[in-house]
Amino acid sequence: MRDLPEWASIREVGPRDGLQNEDPVPVADRVRLIDALSGTGLRHIEAGAFVRPEAIPAMAGSDEVFGLIERAPDVRYTALVPNPHGAERAIDARADALEVVVSASETHNFKNVNRKIEESVAGIVEIVALAEDADLPVEAVISTAYGCPYEGDIAPDAVAELAGQLLDAGVESLCLGDTTGMGSPRRVDEVFDALEAAGVPVAGVRLHFHDTRGSGLANVLAALERGATGFDASIGGLGGCPYAPGASGNIATEDLVHMLHDMGVATGIDLDALIECALLAEKIVGRALPGQVMRAGPRTRLAPAS
Amino acid sequence: MRDLPEWASIREVGPRDGLQNEDPVPVADRVRLIDALSGTGLRHIEAGAFVRPEAIPAMAGSDEVFGLIERAPDVRYTALVPNPHGAERAIDARADALEVVVSASETHNFKNVNRKIEESVAGIVEIVALAEDADLPVEAVISTAYGCPYEGDIAPDAVAELAGQLLDAGVESLCLGDTTGMGSPRRVDEVFDALEAAGVPVAGVRLHFHDTRGSGLANVLAALERGATGFDASIGGLGGCPYAPGASGNIATEDLVHMLHDMGVATGIDLDALIECALLAEKIVGRALPGQVMRAGPRTRLAPAS
To answer: Could you list the pLDDT tens digit for every one of the 306 residues in chain B?
Structure first.
């Protein structure tokens, strides 16, 4: 048998990263989805983003969402913030943690936020200061960590160096983002090699994979074998349809949990309750989602033989 | 870096296993698809089945298909045969190898062919005799090897015992079939442990995975790490749509080859040519197929930065 961790923690990103890539849905539906997710055993939910509503209409009203959800005491509800102003809004809305993003690719970072990487890191330093005043942790995502759609594979050492800079800046945790689905087991190995060489503690690095090219769960397996214990996933695969061009293709939380449990990796999550949430997510966005276990059922669900 | 084989052989099953699960398409389209596939570097193509046309209308005319394809000299064109009569028809049609199937699950085998496993093995012995007379090899598939929809996980020792019986019966090679998508990395380990304990040479066992529950390529990675070097796959994911209930969900050949090449596992196949075949398959069946690399493009295909 292979050597895998006994336990993995899952961060649910459907209500933010997922819904952000869908047509806007009412605040009440976002609240309903988050509350359903918080009843599954999930301990970490990305609940909204404090961005300009003109830029991302689907995240408008995130302050209302944070005000209306029923807070489960053991769940961390996080908010994405692009800048200090967003951080202030998230703190006012009582987010449990702030999430910041910077790309490992200069080209991607510039196209995305019109800034050099070092300027983005400087902005993160400001956000960390605000978060510290409010006694909140900051989670950092390194996007294009597994590859940039403009530059191709970013040097693994550059990813590791940025990881070190962010930890130095005071972020609590790191996540490697698979922005356009370029993750692969080979790339996971290269990035982990570089992180280990740079002394970044890999067990604390969360991984965010897309299934854009079919290898989403293979990437997870590769990362588990390298000692990773934290993963992002999106309920039902919300936020990306493999049939649509340019889709983000988040791995589906229920497919991830199904595979982890089968391999003996505990998550503390109730898979059946998660599947109910995936069906709810589908109802909310009004289209079929790419998650597969919600359709096929867990492999343990047998058919009558007679 | 992980320890993977340098090379893997792929058997393309789209023209049989794939199309069998679609509405029937004209013989000319089947021939066109097979001829396109034989130009990609693939060396092994499941080209048809000699079954009763009333039972499987999509495979009617397989003799015509075998008569019309342009035979590439280094490609093996195989035919599925359910019984000695089918074997005779396949031999007459000049198939390069015969393929037989038996389930590791008594319940599944009985529901499928109304026979006990030992009766199916006896039938395979007859087919092997016919094949030997015609100087053809026989490939055997053990279905429900990763789990049965009626019985659940079949004892790995039972799978290994059946594998031994089939080798004793004179089949040239074995394939483990993931009939209803119950394969998982954990199950791969259990079956490989049993095969190794029984002295079955695992490097020669081909693996047939479905992506019914999202872990198709994770299963491939797990098997590669255990020394497997042969895989079945279906062009475009033909034969199963993850959105349809009861879909078989074959892994897509181009997604498999994309991941293998990225990990440094050679296949001798031209990925771009394979993607063209997937687009052709889509045209032939007239609907979107679940393959993802055909949609997203290989991860090496970059966008212009300006």
So the answer is: 689 999 999 999 999 999 998 899 999 999 999 999 999 999 999 999 999 999 999 999 999 999 999 999 999 999 999 999 999 999 999 999 999 999 999 999 999 999 999 999 999 999 999 999 999 999 999 999 999 999 999 999 999 999 999 999 999 999 999 988 999 999 999 999 999 999 999 888 999 999 999 999 999 999 999 999 999 999 999 986 544 444 558 999 999 999 999 999 999 999 999 999 999 999 999 988 989 999 899 999 998 866
Contacts of A186 in chain B (CB under 8 A): 1, 262-264
Can you say how many angstroms the Cα of residue A220 is from the centroid of all Cα atoms in its chain?
Answer: 13
Contact (Cβ atoms closer than 8 angstroms) between residue A130 and residue A88: yes
Catalytic choice (B148, B175, B241, B277) = B241
| Cβ neighbours for B48, distance < 8 A, ≥ 6 positions apart | B15, B16, B30, B59, B62, B63, B65, B66, B79, B80, B93, B95
Is the Cβ–Cβ distance between A28 and A35 less than 8 Å? no
Residues in chain A within 8 Å Cβ distance of B8: none
- Which tokens belong to B134? 């015609």
Contact B171, B139 (CB under 8 A): yes
Find the helix or strand (DSSP H, E) in which A100 lies: strand A97-103
Q: Nearest CA of chain B to the CA of A23: how many Å?
A: 21
Is A152 buried (19+), middle (13-18) or exposed (0-12) by CB count in 10 A? middle
Q: Is A215 within 8 Å of B149 when comparing Cβ atoms? A: no
Cα(B49)–Cα(B169) distance, rounded to whole angstroms? 22
Residue with tokens 């990103």: A13
Tell me the per-residue pLDDT of B62-115, one tens digit each, with 9 for 90 and over: 999 999 999 999 999 999 999 999 999 999 999 999 999 999 999 999 999 999
- Does CATH place domain A9-296 in 3.20.20.70? yes
Please state, in angstroms and rounded to a whole number, the distance separating the CA atoms of residues A119 and B113: 67
Residue B58, token pair as written in the block: 């999509």
For residue B69, give how far its alpha carbon lies from the nearest alpha carbon of chain A (Å): 31
Closest chain B C-alpha to A97 CA, distance in angstroms: 31
Closest chain A residue to the Cα of B305, Cα to Cα? A150
State which amino acid sits at residue B222. Answer: A
Read off the pLDDT of each residue in A245-273 and give the average, rounded to a whole number.
Answer: 90
CA distance readout (Å), B268 to A83, B40, B261, B264, B273 = 49, 8, 10, 12, 12
Note whether B10 and B42 are within 8 A (CB): yes
Mutate to test the interface with B, among A299, A301, A302, A306 (most CBs of B within 10 A): A299
- What are A227's two structure tokens? 């000692």
Classified as helix, coil or strand, A232 is: strand
Sign of CA dihedral A227, A299, A186, A289: negative
What pLDDT, on the 0 to 100 scale, is given for residue B248? 55
Q: How far is the C-alpha of A173 from the C-alpha of B218, rounded, in Å?
A: 27
- Closest residue to B295, CB basis, from A225, A245, A295: A245
Across the range A47-63, mean pLDDT stands at 96
User: What ranges do the domains of chain B cover?
Assistant: 9-296
* Yes or no, beta carbons of B212 and A292 under 8 Å apart: yes
Measured between beta carbons, the chain B residues lying within 8 angstroms of A290 are 242
Q: Which residues of A touch B262 (CB under 8 A)?
A: 184-187
